[in-house]
Design brief:
two-stranded antiparallel ribbon, 14 helices, 2 strands
Length: about 300
């Protein structure tokens, strides 16, 4: 018994397996890792049908698979596309946004406290979609949870197309110069260390996934969690701000990320219907019985 979210994640993983196989020298280790992940994705729905604990793990797993698939993109992109689009994105920023880029990255003279706040915002990124989706889950509004999860997945996965087509590192500062150029205190240093250790895929500048997911989460919260609109507006805006301020994205990346968010929200209902999600039920609260699971 699989869900719409399972089916989308499996489709993305199958696409990655195909792409990884197309390289001149496919990595057996990478392909093996992908197959293990594939087996895990197939196993969770089966285990979920056998116990309450595994059912909860299965229903909460879609967001958990995102960083796994994201990092699997890194070596696959390196093997398939040697081009780097940073120079073109720099030109795009200069042409489209002019002095805004410099003003953004040097706001208020880059005080350490602002850099630390931006680092906290950037580091809180994964908690935004979790806060939106899991609020519905805890309320047992499983129809809205299913719709939210699918939209959030799209906001995460659609940028993969840009990563493969236009791989770019972003305006990252060399590690040896980060403290002097970016500033900040222990919080900022901790975030930079975490990114160096945890991000296998660093060719993820265009479009900005932080922006696409944050804006998608804001749209979802605005529609379904009206009492929390101000909270999510400030939270998501601070994340988007941090991406340029911390020299991790070009402004062009953000514009593309906003477009991805709009597309993700626009297509979630028709795509959800094709994947087996009860789209009509997502407009009203449902009973605790989970409509996420549909018969294969």
């Amino acid at each position: 018994m699989t869900s719409a979210a399972d089916r989308l994640a499996l489709a993305v993983l199958l696409a990655l397996i195909v792409l990884a196989s197309l390289g001149k020298r496919p990595s057996s280790q990478l392909l093996g890792t992908m197959l293990v992940v594939f087996a895990g994705m197939l196993a969770l729905p089966i285990l979920g049908a056998r116990s309450r604990t595994w059912r909860v793990v299965h229903e909460l797993s879609p967001i958990g698979w995102v960083p796994v698939l994201f990092n699997l993109c890194g070596p696959t992109i390196v093997a398939l596309n040697p081009a780097r689009w940073d120079a073109a994105l720099v030109e795009s920023d200069a042409y489209l946004f002019g002095g805004l880029v410099h003003a953004w990255r040097n706001l208020l003279g880059r005080p350490d406290w602002l850099t630390d706040l931006a680092s906290v915002a950037y580091g809180s990124f994964y908690f935004v979609p979790m806060a939106v989706a899991f609020t519905h889950y805890l309320r047992k509004d499983m129809a809205e949870y299913g719709r939210s999860i699918l939209a959030i997945q799209l906001a995460f996965y659609l940028p993969f197309i840009g990563y493969f087509a236009m791989p770019a590192l972003g305006p990252r500062v060399p590690a040896a110069e980060e403290a002097a150029v970016l500033g900040g205190g222990a919080i900022s240093a901790g975030l930079r260390a975490f990114l160096r250790a945890g991000e296998v895929n660093v060719l993820d500048a265009f479009p900005s996934g932080h922006t696409s997911v944050s804006v998608t989460s804001l749209i979802l919260a605005w529609r379904s969690l009206p009492r929390s609109r101000a909270l999510f507006a400030v939270w998501c805006t601070s994340i988007v701000f941090s991406t340029v301020y911390l020299s991790l994205h070009y402004v062009t990346d953000l514009a593309a990320g906003i477009a991805v968010a709009v597309v993700s929200v626009a297509i979630v209902s028709p795509l959800g219907a094709r994947l087996g999600l009860d789209v009509k039920a997502a407009r009203a609260k449902r009973s605790p019985a989970s409509p996420l699971r549909v018969e294969c």
